[in-house]
Design goal:
five-stranded antiparallel beta sheet, 5 strands
Length: 88
């Protein structure tokens, strides 16, 4: 996978995950060092991509919690489509 595509998928993932958080302004994502393994990008059998990582963010009680997340993308013509966003 090209590093440019990987970086773009990560940025889109972070934006999608923020939309699912109770306090998106408190979100602290992993760094952007792909070599460290903070982000994992999987190519799925159906040609989609799955980006997996974590985010620290406040919950509704104000406590900072680490949440693991996964975002699945697929290219539809010239556009990228988000198939799913899971934050645990």
């Amino acid at each position: 996978m090209r590093e440019e595509l990987a970086t773009q998928l990560i940025e889109w993932s972070k934006k999608a995950v923020k939309e699912k958080l109770k306090s998106p302004s408190t979100a602290k994502f992993a760094g952007l060092l792909l070599e460290r393994g903070d982000y994992r990008i999987y190519t799925m059998p159906d040609g989609s991509y799955r980006v997996v990582s974590w985010v620290d963010a406040q919950n509704s009680f104000g406590a900072m919690l680490r949440n693991h997340w996964a975002v699945k993308f697929k290219k539809n013509g010239e556009q990228w489509e988000i198939l799913s966003v899971v934050v645990e």
